[in-house]
Specification:
Pathway: Bacterial outer membrane biogenesis; LPS O-antigen biosynthesis
Family: Belongs to the NAD(P)-dependent epimerase/dehydratase family.
InterPro entries: Epimerase_deHydtase, NAD(P)-bd_dom_sf
Number of strands: 13
Radius of gyration: 19 Å
Helix content: 25-40%
Shape: globular
Order of helices and strands: EHEEEHHEHEEHEEEHEEHEHHHH
Protein name: GDP-mannose 4,6-dehydratase
Pfam family, one: Epimerase
Distance between the termini: 50 Å
CATH class of the largest domain: Alpha Beta
């Protein structure tokens, strides 16, 4: 077991009680870091870190990132800052764009200022592949940017702030554009969204999987612990000012997920503005840092199924409730005026 002490390096993880953030905490503690988590618990759960209860190397501060001051003691002395905190649902971003811009952009600026004041050695930002919009595949980092909804826009503008602080203030920083992350401890509450949470709750209830379109659309699924390793690689590299795609590099049809989960299906209308395929070109991060995914899709799904009870209290979605929840999506993205670049 890795031992730590007063001289062990400190890492800050915003959103550390959340899905990927909690996997980041796991990795950092296993590598001998003392970890400070900042989380508002809007999307995260303290239970996601319950397996670290009593660990003196972990502290959790329940705090909105927008309230963190530049000279905050929460960041002082930290070597790395991993910024996952933010609002992640797509559909509500169409309905509440101001909230998304405030949290995902200005919240990021707050953390950048705290990192700059503290003199952190590397700031690593959790960006989103939604910045590319309807992208050509496989998608490289130099692909044109074209977010289709406020969530994607807010995450991209947060990334622009990161690179601005890198260029103007010399803050060492990199960004990870996450594709379709999945795994244990993914979010169980909130709006209709990620396919795994929807399907796992439906499987527990014995109801059909609500497959969008015909299920042939493919997603570049990448397991959460692999994502966490990519963030650490992006922190430890001497390179700075870089954006990296992180995905499995092996897109899987939704029908393949249904096959692995096992169950009946019902098909619902395809949503406008969604790609038929997401596929990360991961050659840049592989070549520059040595990172590559280790968890196969089949192994990852098996891990999730072994922990399926985690989703027992998640919302149970039906075709009717999905139609109601996504009405804004069709209203704003289903017309010529709603397909903004």
């Amino acid at each position: 077991m890795t031992t730590t002490g007063p001289t062990s390096p400190v890492a800050v993880v915003t959103g550390g009680c959340g899905f990927i953030g909690s996997h980041m905490v796991d990795l950092l503690l296993s590598r001998g870091f003392r970890v400070r988590v900042i989380d508002s618990l809007v999307g995260g759960r303290e239970a996601n870190l319950a397996h670290h209860a009593g660990n003196p190397d972990l502290s959790v501060e329940i705090r909105d990132i927008r309230s963190v001051e530049p000279d905050s003691s929460l960041v002082a002395g930290a070597r790395y800052l991993f910024h996952f905190a933010g609002i992640g649902d797509i559909v509500p971003s169409i309905e509440k764009p101001t909230e998304y811009m405030d949290t995902n952009v200005m919240g990021t600026v707050r953390m950048l200022e705290a990192a700059r004041t503290a003199g952190v050695a590397k700031f690593v930002y959790a960006a989103s592949s939604t910045c590319y919009g309807l992208a050509g595949v496989p998608t490289r980092e130099d692909h044109p940017i074209g977010p289709k909804y406020p969530y994607g826009l807010s995450k991209y503008q947060g990334e622009q702030a990161v690179f601005h602080w890198n260029a103007v203030y010399g803050l060492p920083a990199n960004s990870i554009r996450i594709f379709n992350a999945y795994g244990i401890r993914s979010r169980t509450s909130g709006a209709y969204g990620a396919v795994f949470g929807v399907f796992l709750r439906q499987k527990l209830a014995g109801t059909p999987f609500t497959v969008v379109g015909d299920g042939t659309q493919a997603r570049d699924f990448v397991y959460a612990s692999d994502v966490a390793r990519a963030f650490l690689c992006a922190a430890e590299t001497e390179r700075t000012g870089e954006a990296y795609n992180v995905g499995g590099g092996n897109p899987q049809p939704v029908n393949r997920l249904v096959e692995l989960l096992g169950g009946e299906t019902v098909y619902i209308p395809k949503r406008p503005g969604e790609p038929d395929c997401t596929w990360a070109d991961i050659s840049k991060i592989r070549d520059q840092t040595g990172w590559q995914p280790e968890i196969s899709f089949e192994e990852g799904v098996a891990r999730v199924l072994a922990n399926i009870d985690y989703w027992a209290e998640a919302p149970l979605w039906t075709p009717d409730s999905i139609q109601t929840a996504t009405a804004s999506w069709f209203k704003y993205l289903g017309t010529p005026g709603g397909t903004a670049p």
